Amino acid sequence: MKYSASKENYIKAIFHLQQADESVATNALADALQTKPASVTDMLKKLKTQKLLQYEKYRGVKLTPEGKKLAVQIIRKHRLWELFLVEKLQFGWEEVHEIAEELEHISSKKLIDRLDAFLDFPKADPHGDPIPDINGKMPALQQSAVSEMPVNSSGTVNGISDQSADMLELLKHKSIQLGTRLEIKKKFEVDGSVEIKIRNQQPVNISEHVAKNLLVAYDNKGK
Amino acid sequence: MKYSASKENYIKAIFHLQQADESVATNALADALQTKPASVTDMLKKLKTQKLLQYEKYRGVKLTPEGKKLAVQIIRKHRLWELFLVEKLQFGWEEVHEIAEELEHISSKKLIDRLDAFLDFPKADPHGDPIPDINGKMPALQQSAVSEMPVNSSGTVNGISDQSADMLELLKHKSIQLGTRLEIKKKFEVDGSVEIKIRNQQPVNISEHVAKNLLVAYDNKGK
DNA sequence: ATATATTTTTAGATTTGCCTAAATTTTAAT
DNA sequence: ATTAAAATTTAGGCAAATCTAAAAATATAT
Fold first, then answer.
1. Of A118, A119, A188, residue with least CA distance to B90
2. Tens-digit pLDDT profile for residues A95-117
3. For residue A220, what pLDDT is reported?
4. Do B85 and A111 count as a contact with CB atoms less than 8 A apart?
5. Which of A14, A210, B1, B111 has the highest CB neighbour count under 10 A?
6. What is the C-alpha to C-alpha distance for residues A79 and B34, in angstroms, rounded to an integer?
7. Are A155 and A217 spatial neighbours (Cβ–Cβ below 8 Å)?
8. B115 contacts in A (CB within 8 Å)?
9. What residues have CB less than 8 Å from B188, skipping those under 6 apart?
10. Could you report the per-residue pLDDT of B130-161, keeping only the tens digit for each?
11. How far is the CA of A41 from the C1' of D3 (A)?
């Protein structure tokens, strides 16, 4: 079955908003999709008749297994295209999302499976998010503290264990935030500090404490 | 300016139908676009207000310079994507058209220019049709007789000078037709005959006469 | 030159996806 | 347990792109 780009965007948004198995509110969806709640209600009725979701009025919405399957396919396309853009066409990792929003609606399944092979069956996109495989299986997010990463590896900041104001201030000062892509340059055994490099900036040093609390999603190749 | 996929398809169809500078008939367009003449009339009125074409009712339609520019951009995208699919993703040259019909509507100009560079600024698509460059300049179609082509080069059958029934019968027998992709394997000086290979078939020999009359569009790399 | 056939346009609907404004339901607060 | 606030849905419309059926213009044939 083939769905419009608009419908696919609804399915994707619900998937992302749907933590665990709670249902998603109309307003939350309207917000995520930059549209009006009334439009969301309209669309939910249509998607319900297509059995992509469970919807009872005033009760919010949940994806059916079929809806989830579709969502995962779209996410697979999105993340593969993002990686293609960064890895093969030299785009910056911050400029690819918008383009992938369009590319993810190209329908050919064969295309996406070939692209997957061309990229060597990658496990994560440029932001460190996992890429579902050909069967829709989503690999666990590969996350670890900066202190655990090998020299010369790279990844994307994805979480901070110590959320104290002091820590956040320090990170802000070093212009590190969620989504910041960094590379491990050198590790000092003496004090456990780590030298990291952010994009075009000069390498900076972070203490063992910071390195242990800064969580990074790392790329990973191979099947 | 950004146009809908539907509008882009109209512009492209008019461009292809518009020989020299004659105007294109409503019915011809409806035919090419697999739609009804009434729908074409509706759309032509819209495209006229956008100054992409000259249209007087009952008088047919012509692209304005602006319309032509848009058409060339779309064709550039289409052909680059086709080549990408064949060259990088191992698609057969006959299965790429349909997918490229979707990909050609992805809007990012930067994407297409990067793709162009990634493919090494190719001059022709897998069917031998010329690819407009970044400025919209369309290289002349690189066409020559099989007899003139170097050994190991390849191309796509694109015309036949001698259109006699006998010639056509012979070509049909060897399953050569417009669009057939072939490779020059060996040339025999003695009699001017040429050994060619078609896709997955065994190599076949064609006489000097045939080789001189079989016109092929050949691929070409580099700026 | 006039009738007939063909092409093209108009008129009026339909579907998709969105909107605003008003009504309804649910939730939260006292 | 009411009432006020917030969330959600309904009702009625709009624009894009299509359609069918009917009308109008152009082309063709004798």
1. A118
2. 999 999 999 999 999 999 999 99
3. 59
4. yes
5. A14
6. 34
7. yes
8. 89
9. B194, B195
10. 999 999 999 888 788 999 998 988 888 887 88
11. 27
